[in-house]
Amino acid sequence: MELGIGLPTMIPGVPGEDLLASAVRAEELGFASLGVLDRLMYDGYEPLVTLAAAAGATRRIRLTTTILIAAYRADRSVLAKQLSSIDRLSGGRLVVGVAAGGRPDDFEACDTPYERRGRRLDDLLDGLRRTWSGGPDPLNPGPSRSDGGPPLLVGGHTPQAMRRAARFGVGWIAGGSSASSYGDLADRARQAWRDEGRTDRPRLVAIANVALGPDAAERAERFLLDYYGFLGWKAEIAVKGLITEPDQLREFVDGYRAVGCDELILFPCVSEPGQVDEIARVVLR
User: Fold this and answer.
1) Across 98-122, average pLDDT
2) What's the pTM?
């Protein structure tokens, strides 16, 4: 199982130089990928701009949107151009994780209907695939790509999301939960692949929240309660899923490896660049 690290783009007040320092250090330590979150109506960095900056600061590490709320972006041609540009700037290191999203305010800010976000995402992914494969597409913003474009991961737990992943993606991505729960969901993703008539296996990816070191847990809990405050009492679920002890993190990683996860991306919930080293000491053996 590969291990990635998330950039703390959604923690308010993180200096840009700290984000890039974290990206460079993650590559030096041997993490497989950098992840970024997406939320428009929150005090954080825009994920595609962040990955473009990280592309210039690094040379080998994959750059992954985990996930991009693509459906609120009104202009598919612009999005296709942005994604292709990051992929080319990075030498083909971009992986595009997408999901329908669950925050109405992000969609309202873009004058995009929240209620039809699933259908909109289907249309958008189909269009991106046609744009990159050279199929008939009047909105094609440039030359087609011989490689079919960046790999697509699709997130979500619903049957519709699983079907979407099997139809458009190379894999499926999910937020952190227990290893047994993730294993059950991964089985559903594999079944969706078979139902779609695919003979390959899905790449299984997951993300989890981590905060290690003195006072890190308390600060991370405050951040998570604020970030997931739109969920009301359910924000406590995110706090309960926070990993705060080295032994807990080792057990979590081992559990995901055992159920067949291909890549686990660990998101620091405190902002210091040194958090990358703290996590690496525990999980990179």
Assistant:
1) 93
2) 0.94
